[in-house]
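Quarterly update from the structural biology core.
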Amino acid sequence: MLLILAGCLASSTFVYEVCDLGIETPVAPVDAGATVAFVAGPLTSARDTTALLDGARVDVVDVARTECSLCDACRNVEACEVCGPCVPCESTCAACVETLTVAVPSDAPPGPSVLTVVNAYGQGSASLEISGSPVGNTGDTGTDP
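Predicted structure, tokenized:
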């Protein structure tokens, strides 16, 4: 006996904003094994954010939005887009700082790297330099030459 069920499945469509996330590039080299904070935005939450270092997933330690509640409320009242400027709220939003903190793997190779961040609003990338020694590594192997 063959039973065919057709038309019984519900489908869902998810609509996401498409923003170019801004991520400030660190001035100094970043140590392998370090936890590094980047000023970025627009951000959502840690559970909604994926970070990749040269295409490999890295841990998102924290997503912080400091002094942003008044800005969010103003943008909502003014019906501003998440991704665009909101002229009526510029002064209110000046205090809002969004920070993304990621853990750089201790085995990250030294040299230039690219951090890519993806969330429900979109994605963005920043170039950074990984220093030659992992955090806490003094180079001493514990053996005599």
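Residues 21 and 104 are 20 Å apart (CA to CA).
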